[in-house]
Amino acid sequence: MRWTLVVPLKPLARAKSRLSDTAPDAVRPRLVLAFAQDTVAAAGASPAVRDVVVVTDDPLAGRELAGLGARIVPDPPRRAPDRTRGRTPDDGLNAALTHGVATVRLGRPDAAVAALNADLPALRTEELTRVLEQAARFPRAFLADAAGIGTTLLTALSGRELLPLFGNASRMRHRGSGAAEIMLPGIDSVRQDVDTGADLRTALSLGVGPHTQKAATLLPHPGHPPRSHP
Q1: pTM reported for the whole predicted model
Q2: What is the pLDDT of residue 225?
Q3: 62, 149, 187, 230: most buried, per Cβ within 10 A?
Q4: What is the pLDDT of residues 189-209, one digit of tens each?
Q5: 49-85 burial, b for 16+ CB within 10 Å, e for fewer?
């Protein structure tokens, strides 16, 4: 089983606003790009990964991530919200993932696909490989984030729709949709996404990839000295 990973990424200038108390506006876009670079590099090195598709409209991110071997797919145009229907907490993200999967399966209808967050700077290839091997046992599966509230990975085997429900309380949403929850020890790096300064400090203590390690030196008070993977 080899997976195509679909990684959504907002325009860098608009991403990770909750890091504003830790990363100044001049530094935050570079930090966000570094997160994505380390995520894509670690994910693409896994023997369980066939290829990585990044859904983004950011030209700089597109160039840099393509240089790491990712295929870049433009974000779909945003439609005006339908006020008469209920909406998931992050329709933009879920629409991007659905579009990315549809693009992949247009060329390879039998592709096994996985949505992976772009903000996993401590990601270790061997831990992701273990998670994907476990996910191959289920038609759809997901991995909760370190806080136990959100989701960092959602998978769907060939012939199954991904059905992304990312946003607030996505762990509960994905579990309610019938996806199996992956429960493994020793996979902290796959669960540690970064939304806040506290998240960043935890990721730095786990050991981050080289791009985040370099970008973190620009922070006024990172909280932990950046540590690379062992």
Answers
A1: 0.92
A2: 58
A3: 187
A4: 999 999 999 999 999 999 999
A5: bbbbbbbbbbeebbebbeebebbbbebbeeeeeeeee
